[in-house]
Amino acid sequence: MPFEKTEKIWMDGELVPWDDARVHVLTHSLHYGSGVFEGIRTYAAADGPAVFRLTDHIQRLFDSAKLIMMEIPYTRDELIEACKLTVRESGLDSCYVRPIAYLGYGEIGLNPLPCEVNVSIAVWPWGSYLGEESLEAGVKVKVSSWRRMDPNINPVAAKGTGIYINSSLAKVEALHGGYDEAILLNTTGSVAEATGENVFTVKNGVLYTPPLSSGALEGITRDSVMTIARDFGYEVREQPLLRTDLYLADEAFLCGTAAEIVPIREVDDREIGDPGEVTRKIQETYFAAVHGQVEKYADWLEYANDA
Ligand code: PY5
Fold first, then answer.
1. CB-based pocket (< 6 A), ligand 1
2. Ligand 1 atom nearest to CA at 39
3. Cα-atom radius of gyration of the chain, to the nearest Å?
């Protein structure tokens, strides 16, 4: 999907024109994947553009940095304000927000510790990542031949730029096979997650999702889904899933900031079918919540205009 450019990108404390937001070709992170990032969405709400669970996303950015021993040269509050500022500056009611902290120009050895840490925040309009139609029709997924990395090979709990080569390999394999998305198993064969989304199944009215120990990212949408499901009175179990649990699920869906909540209609050519009742209820409530229409979840919204 091509970018719809916005006016300004926040780079190390300054708003620079979109086309001038450049880095040197010897930027450390370009060579070794040593960056950490977040994907956040802003939604139009009655009180203005609302950044969904911004503080939680910025906390995860700092957690990712800690895992790779990167010192971000800003406080959480400074980056929260910088995200809001960049959103305000764009004039958009709804947009995707992409903060990234990366090792800059100056050192090219493998020791990252002497490198300067740079931070930027870009925002742009971004429709649902797996396609607007995916939200209604659902997607066809393939269990990848690529395994999610073991946490002792790479800290999969970090949203680290280099770690995403694993996801991209799986994504390309799935697309070449005619599927929309891939689900990765971990090295012991349990379901971990999709390339950029967490996974849920529904069986006999109970929701299941792999635990973080299976290699799933601690998704903020995953957490919101678990809260919504429990508030509806559903039981939610975090437990290891086999690929065959996906095949035999009554319902299944993917969730993530970019993709939002996307029903799965087929796994490895086994039909799951039209989106089921549980998936629909959670999807509807989630979309109402992100637009500020559910009082109970009002705390999830952080308004860009509240400077
Ligand atoms: N798992 C992985 C590997 C992810 O990259 C993401 C988010 C998630 C799970 C879901 O996490 P959350 O609910 O906190 O977003 N992926 C990014 C996103 O912005 C990048 C997608 C291109 O959704």
1. 39, 129, 167, 193, 196-198, 217, 219-222, 256-258
2. 19
3. 19
Q: What is the band of 1 on the pLDDT scale with cuts at 50, 70, 90?
A: low
If you measure from the C-alpha of residue 44 to the centroid of ligand 1, how many angstroms do you get, rounded to a whole number?
21
Query: In this structure, are residues 106 and 115 in contact, taking their beta carbons and an 8 Å threshold?
Result: yes
Is 52 strand, coil or helix? strand
Instruction: Give the Å distance between the CA of 172 and the centre of ligand 1.
Output: 17
* CA-closest residue to ligand 1 atom 8: 197
CA of 167 to the centre of ligand 1 (A): 11
Residues designated catalytic = 159
Rounded Cα distance, 247 and 50, in Å: 37
- pLDDT by residue (tens digit) across 73-124? 999 999 999 999 999 999 999 999 999 999 999 889 999 888 999 999 999 9
Identify whether the C-beta of residue 16 lies closer than 8 Å to the C-beta of residue 9. yes
Q: Is the pLDDT of residue 3 over 90?
A: no
pTM over 0.90: yes
Closest CA to 86 of 44, 42, 128: 42
Side-chain half-sphere exposure of 160, counting CA atoms within 13 A: 25
Segment 192-210 shows an average pLDDT of 98
